[in-house]
Amino acid sequence: MAKIKSLSEFGLIDRVSKKFNHRLRNTVLPLGDDCAAYSATSSKTQLVSTDALVENIHFKLSTISPQQLGQKAIAVNISDIAAMGGIPTRVLITLGIPKKISSSFLDQLYAGIHKTCKLYNIELFGGDTVSSPKCFFINITIIGEAEQGNIFTRDGAKKGDLIFTTGTLGDSSLGLKMLSKEKWECSSNSRKHLLKKHLTPIPRIKESRLLKKFGSRVTSMIDISDGLVQDLHHICKQSKTGATIYEENLPLSPAFSKFCSDNNLSPLPYILNGGEDYELLFTLSPDGVNNLIRQFKKAEALVTQIGEITQPSKKVSLLKKNGKREMLPQSSGFNHF
Amino acid sequence: MAKIKSLSEFGLIDRVSKKFNHRLRNTVLPLGDDCAAYSATSSKTQLVSTDALVENIHFKLSTISPQQLGQKAIAVNISDIAAMGGIPTRVLITLGIPKKISSSFLDQLYAGIHKTCKLYNIELFGGDTVSSPKCFFINITIIGEAEQGNIFTRDGAKKGDLIFTTGTLGDSSLGLKMLSKEKWECSSNSRKHLLKKHLTPIPRIKESRLLKKFGSRVTSMIDISDGLVQDLHHICKQSKTGATIYEENLPLSPAFSKFCSDNNLSPLPYILNGGEDYELLFTLSPDGVNNLIRQFKKAEALVTQIGEITQPSKKVSLLKKNGKREMLPQSSGFNHF
Prior knowledge:
Order of helices and strands of chain A: HEEEHEHEEEHHHEHEHHEHEEE
Number of domains of chain A: 2
Largest sheet of chain A: 7 strands, mixed
Structural class of chain A: alpha+beta
Shape of chain A: globular
Oligomer: homodimer
Number of helices of chain A: 10
Number of strands of chain A: 13
CATH class of the largest domain in chain A: Alpha Beta
């Protein structure tokens, strides 16, 4: 009997989706993207997504404060709405609470949830609190909305489109690495930057709203939660294309580069497969590039072209600084199982 | 530092709701009922609710099959939509999966989910699958809809209204009791009935639709998940009323009565506080009673008047068969913590 370890999360979703293909009339986008979408009115599409964080799998209570955990749980769900070009509106929060958890922990957790919800004008709309025998867990369902017929999906990338990412890559996974032991060569500013990217990521709502101005020139979008390679594979698979990433273009923060060199860490695994960047990865038709650069500069938002969409092979490769090409298989992404 | 054990689920929700009172413009009903509701169009209200089931808290894998668990997880969420007078439309399913779980278990679980979704025309609309270190858990978010301005809530009961329940009470908790050991005096038919009510409850969608015909004569409604007393307290608290239940009217199945008498069990704790009945508990203004009885008879659906709404004391009492009155405090309900 196959154990779940041999199924990736994505394999499971594929298996289930194939069996489970009933669709309602007003479904705009079924499961399989960052959010699913349905149309409740002629002008607005409702976006819905759900994400769980489990103690000792996604976080350790010894390295994240309850307030940070509350902020992060909401932020990573907002990121899914941003990836669709939507605006978050409501959340439902389930907590699985073991006996070791105190009420002051819960107060601080909710303070973090509240802070992030307030910042993005999100209403707490329900939830469930249950006992959990061993581990604390949070499940968040987020609801958002977008104008009808104007959502970003994973399936529209075309050969010749350019691949962009917001922000910098690898900081979050390096922040996680940093939490694994005490002694690293690192300035306090760098430490702060890397930990912040890991513990309290900022969902790219501002950037997502900027990208709405580009309409159908943005041909696909996803948020980088599983790692650049894994998430680019999702775009390629659903768009039936291949992709090449240029190593020398990958955007790195000064803190990231310095930490890697000071501590003799090879940066590429963190950049490519680290996961939890919560940056927006998107493809753009070439005629939109100049305007994109201009708009992001004006908004003081970071965006970088990191590659291009290639032939319909569904393969992803890395063009290295030394001119060699390396294939990047899907399985190298972050995988809980 | 107060541990979570000292907070009931409801205490926690109250604390959070008070702090967290931001409401969006199109919110119809904020958190605190079986579902929260918002209006996406001028004609339809969107209902949303979320519920988690955790291994060894809500179920044991040794006493429920994966298919039954899948059916039950969806059914108890549908029950929340039924309690609002809505129609379920979509679900999002999060699974927390420990290593011991096999892929065939998941296939059977999804077969159960699929069966119930198909029966009620519900679309699987997303989800998350994550590792869980110890216990299997399922979190379901359900979306439904109702006509604008026509949902049942907990806060409209008035003095003189009559209290009704669908179906019979206590079967589910007796089914759970039966699972705790092998040797009970019980016919195989009774066993089947009681286990079915516990393992695969039928959400009262048919009854909910019947009650829609009564419009504002149905003054409040809730589904009995925490137990009759606990859930009646929710109505009384939110309606600012008291209530009296008549012991001799409480509807019991023949299997329930026989099992209790054959095994020397006192029936009242199961009926009043057993929980997981997933029947609809509602209040009706007296001028609707005759029509209610007629409509339910015609539809071959069971409904019983079990009490009446009293003065605004928020207290619930039981009028016993011997004519004595017993107060039923809120804390006697089912409580995970």
